[in-house]
Amino acid sequence: MSLNFKNIDWVKVLTRAQLDVKYLSKRQGPCPLCGGKTRFRFDNKDNAGTYYCNHCGAGNGYTLLRAFTSMSDREALEFLQGETSCRPVGRPATRHDGRSLKAKAEAEARKKRTKLNAAWAGSVPITGISPVWAYLSRRVPGLQLAWLSPDLRYHPALAFWDTDDEGKPVNRGDWPVMLARARRADGTPVTLHRTYLSKDGYKAPFADVKKQMASPQKLAGAAIQLNCPTTRSRKVIVCEGIETGLALVAATGNRIEVWCLLNAGNLAAADIARDRFDQVTICADRDPLDPKHGWRPGEHYAEMLKARLLIEGFGVRLRVPKNEGEDYSDLWLRAAHLKLAA
């Protein structure tokens, strides 16, 4: 069965699948898949049902339908049968020349690469007097500057783009940023992750200060390699967040490589070379139960990764905090506070 996604009225389809229409308003808001406050936006580019979430990543109407409903490919295609003629009235299908579409895609990819390269070129190594180190020192007690990977850097001023009440983009000025480079296992750079900060090393005063830059490549298992271990081993620890990963670096005394995959879905796709590692420890977040799907996202995707790695011949351990809503950054902070109070 073949469908042209651009001929489908995705707002109609997704609301028929019980997705609340509030998520489809084209304004930033919570993600229907992973929550948050302002991390998700349904932009529906080219009528393909496209969306972007700072946590889950990008997708189209079909991937959103499948992720929200947990339908199989066959179930989703059957659900969409008869919907190809549901384009909203007044929006005739537009025919494009194949060459012009390819040229447009290539131009867009060049634009994204230029922005990524400019951001990285404008960054510098993290020093003990930078806002990034002030931030990390507070967030991760016991972390040492010398442990940080060169894939973590400091940019003194990047624009923070937000949206107003009408969903229009607004520039909130330039802010210091912790830049983190995600790469594939073979070293190929894929994208940059930004954490916006104040000059004194606190989070910038906005709702969602963590943003992944647009890239011509999909994340697809690319990771931020957070540290430079004192000894090279055949073990690696993988997790979702940067601060969580750095807490694990501190907790293990920088003896093991720690990779951050940025979100739960990308954790499941982690690109780990079998000829480089034998043992993988997966440190999942203890997310609240998703009532729609009946599972906790962090553990669900971690279990998916575990199953794949076992098939690929890795030794695998899965670790999850006991308390709901916690990750290993929370555990490390609590342990540090308890030590100080003792």
Structure explained in plain terms:
The protein has 342 residues and is α+β, with helices and mostly antiparallel strands. The chain has helices at residues 10-16, 61-69, 73-80, 98-121, 131-139, 242-251, 264-268, 297-311, 328-341, and strands at 29-31, 35-42, 51-53, 57-59, 124-125, 152-163, 169-183, 189-196, 210-212, 224-225, 235-239, 257-260, 279-283, 315-319. Helix 6 crosses helix 9. It is globular, with a radius of gyration of 21 Å. A five-stranded antiparallel sheet has the order 5-6-7-8-9.
Count of individual helical segments:
9
Mean pLDDT: 86
Tell me the strand percentage band. 15-25%
Q: What would the principal axes of the Cα set say about the shape?
A: globular
Termini gap: 65 Å
Main sheet, how many strands, which sense, barrel?
5 strands, antiparallel
Radius of gyration: 21 Å
Structural class: alpha+beta
The topology string of helices and strands comes to HEEEEHHHEHEEEEEEHEHEHEH
Summarize the structure.
By secondary structure, this protein is of the alpha+beta class. It folds into 2 domains: 5-80, no CATH class; 111-341, no CATH class. It has 9 helices and 14 strands.
Which short descriptors sum up this protein?
five-stranded mixed beta sheet; 14 strands; alpha+beta; 342 residues; 9 helices; 30% helix; 2 domains
Describe the SSE topology.
Layout: H1 10-16, E1 29-31, E2 35-42, E3 51-53, E4 57-59, H2 61-69, H3 73-80, H4 98-121, E5 124-125, H5 131-139, E6 152-163, E7 169-183, E8 189-196, E9 210-212, E10 224-225, E11 235-239, H6 242-251, E12 257-260, H7 264-268, E13 279-283, H8 297-311, E14 315-319, H9 328-341
Parallel strand pairs: 11-12, 11-13, 13-14
Antiparallel strand pairs: 1-2, 2-3, 3-4, 5-6, 6-7, 7-8, 8-9, 10-12
Helix pairs in contact: 6-9
